[in-house]
Amino acid sequence: MRKDDYNKRKRLGMKVTKPTIKNIARAAGVSTATVSRALAYKNNLKPATAKRIRQIAQEMGYHKNVAASQLASNMTNTIAVIINYTQTDFWIGILNGILHRARELNHQVITFYAGDNDSRRLTQTVNEALEHQANGILMISGKMEQEQVEILSTAHMPYRLISIYNPEHPEHRYVSSNNVEIGEQATNYLIKRGHRRIGLVGIDHYLTGQQRLFGYQRAMTAAGLPINPHWIHYGDYSYQDGKKLFSAIQDGSVTAVVAGSDMIGAGLLKAATQAGWRLPEQLSIISIDGSDTCELTTPELTTVSQDFYQMGITSVDNLLQDQPSTFIPTTLIERDSVQPLPTEK
């Protein structure tokens, strides 16, 4: 069956046969061996040819079943977990929650690592996970592009996004903290302690960062405070970026900052201390995540703590019980990194 015929029959609601490598080869005008190499991501094909073949396979709904023998013997009860983007260690708590809950429910867990900032590798990993014909897929990610979500959506396999969500696509179910509320809560904490010139440091340009930016802006606007673009600085949530970004606020234009992650906060503290600043007297910092890092800094970091372990537990339940998207509540933990101001500086 040609690709155009397949898509036409599918749109009309007509019965279509399960796509095979032979079908894909015919639609693409290549040999079955070429299709096999493309679907296995072999490097001995022209990139344009391989991409076209994989696109046709995706449109036809093809996924290689490498676990047919397991399915035939009812040896399923498996959850595939894809881990992507690990600049911070948030995924460890999530994975521990997944493993704990899966073990309670007699499910095995297969993990796939998709690297950092590698869209092609992430797409390849999603396809590899689909080939295992698990009960479902859990995607732990700080970043995800529409291409990977579309692959999951068309695969007819249950999935949940963890720690990331897109309100413009509610059909893609998720388990996450509410990043808008996190940004707003952290900013309001500083506002209530007298700070008026508040920066936002270390967020990224992707969904999570932009949602936290919106929460920050909402809190500042509600308090009647100015939003100065020079107080907003982007990064990758890492410790090294936190150290580098201190130079952006070293002019003293802000009295406090919301750090995009605990690692950003720790990096800021380190750089400020090395520069001879007194903290929190000269700079107050509230961070986001609630990792153990907060208790290893001097002063210890006040943080908006995400319950990553519960996120993992809930994601398994939501996946296996077909439950709706869920926000996991956060907790603000006060420590020593924020100094109240009696009046505006």
Automatic annotation (TrEMBL):
<dbReference type="InterPro" id="IPR000843">
    <property type="entry name" value="HTH_LacI"/>
</dbReference>
<dbReference type="InterPro" id="IPR010982">
    <property type="entry name" value="Lambda_DNA-bd_dom_sf"/>
</dbReference>
<dbReference type="InterPro" id="IPR046335">
    <property type="entry name" value="LacI/GalR-like_sensor"/>
</dbReference>
<dbReference type="GO" id="GO:0003700">
    <property type="term" value="F:DNA-binding transcription factor activity"/>
</dbReference>
<keyword id="KW-0238">DNA-binding</keyword>
<keyword id="KW-0804">Transcription</keyword>
<dbReference type="GO" id="GO:0000976">
    <property type="term" value="F:transcription cis-regulatory region binding"/>
</dbReference>
<keyword id="KW-0805">Transcription regulation</keyword>
<dbReference type="Pfam" id="PF00356">
    <property type="entry name" value="LacI"/>
</dbReference>
<dbReference type="Pfam" id="PF13377">
    <property type="entry name" value="Peripla_BP_3"/>
</dbReference>
<dbReference type="InterPro" id="IPR028082">
    <property type="entry name" value="Peripla_BP_I"/>
</dbReference>
<feature type="domain" description="HTH lacI-type">
    <location>
        <begin position="19"/>
        <end position="73"/>
    </location>
</feature>
<protein>
    <submittedName>
        <fullName>Transcriptional regulator, LacI family</fullName>
    </submittedName>
</protein>
